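Checked the freezer inventory, then went back to the computational side. Two predictions to log before the end of the day. The first one is the construct we discussed on Monday; recording sequence and tokens without edits.
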Amino acid sequence: MNIYETRRLLDEYLLFHYGEDHEVLPWEQGPKAALGFAVRTVSELADFSRKVDSALDLGCAVGRSSFELARSAKSVIGIDYSHSFIDAAKALISDDLNYQRMDEAQAMTALIARVPAECPRDHVQFEQGDAMSLRADLGRYDLVHAANLLCRLSDPLLLIERLPDLVKSGGQLLLTTPCTWLEEFTPRDHWPKGSTREWLRSILSEHFELKLEKDLPFLIREHARKYQWSVAYGTRWIRR
């Protein structure tokens, strides 16, 4: 079974995207700078001094970044390959969503995912789709956001080669990746030959100008005493 369709991973991502800081990380000595990643990929990478009326969120998971983009954009489309993630994101457009946090063994805590009131939920729509085979009529956007998606695709070049057609001239492309290339997701011959940073620069620079590079730590809770702490490589590109 696809791990991204399991209830456990859905709950894990709802906590990752919507959990309060204390719900995710109760430990005082923990890496608090890594919290709120789905918000920070927007707030720390986007330049909102530029026009952002329309936005596309690829690999949106359960939608927190899409809702964050709606603070500025009048129209946001979030796309993810996981049916369960998209079903959850759609549900959050109209209501809060109950989920379970794994604590230890069979011990669970009931939590509620809520979209902040400041995020206009009616500006957002979600659809299931494949980032490597996006529908032809998707259009162009002032901002395209793809967080931690590239190294989960079997052929990331299929998305990268489509990106120039998705971003309007002068528009923004926001990418993050932890550069975690694993054969269970991406065949080795589709990995970068060297660093992911140089690989992206070599491919994207024909159509985009690199404006910002930033390290973005993030934290995924598995249970009360086990976490994944990673650092994503974040970039902002401007379409030429």
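The second is the one RB wanted added to the comparison set:
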Amino acid sequence: MNGRWPQGAGLGFRRELLPELEAGVPEAVDFFELAPENWAGMGGRSARQLRAFTERYPFVCHGLSLSPGGMLPLDVDLLRRIRAFMASHGIALYTEHLSWSNDVGQLYDLLPLPCTGEAVRWTAARIRQAQDVLGMRIGIENASYYVAPPGAEMDETEFIRAVVEEADCLLHLDVNNILVNARNFGFDPLGFLHALPLERACYIHVAGHHREPDGLLIDTHGAEVIADVWQLLDAAYRRTGPLPTCLERDFDFPPLAALGAEVAQIARMQRRAGATAVAA
């Protein structure tokens, strides 16, 4: 599929931000990310507003409802709409979560998959089907979760590697999700990062999270990125190089200038990582 591949540092494209974005996009923002379910098929003023940005900036589609690991038949009609939407706006990258999110209907939550061989085969087959419909390889994101499914036959990094290799897809790396899960389940985030198939990484997310009084971390995308997440991003860049990286912010929005400062932090880290790679 033809389109503009993202480069540099990006920001989630949210309707709440549109008035400020239309007044001026922060200098550090190189691309935007959106959920295609929220924009595909949209007409009128919303469509015109989006077109004004897709004509100027590369975009990434980050899906919310495909449910790669779910039991219901894959929504091929949705994929066809997404393919047409991406072609219309020159979007080259689509990613989704390694999770399931439907049963008798859409659950509006991203639930973890059991780390079993059967789940690998089932999920990889559905990802291959999605890639066939979209006509492109897609990125699959390591997800946050709060209950680990029973019956694991392998650890999570082995499961992720098996899925992306069997599906022949790409890895969408979310460093905040790694940290949230590591703190909640008591494992080493850096060790987890290095065990992932980073040779397949194509795209990275950073975000903020919420800490409950009992210490539980909730992946909210509603707060500033903390130092530990920035450090994990830096460690990722040392392995992957400065891949395109998006700041996720879904609610409790600060002024756009504050989000621009976080995107600028991504850009500075990317420049540093690029300079280090050249020196090496």
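For RB: Residues 256-279 form the longest helix (24 residues). The CA atoms of residues 37 and 53 lie 18 Å apart. Let me know if you want it refolded.
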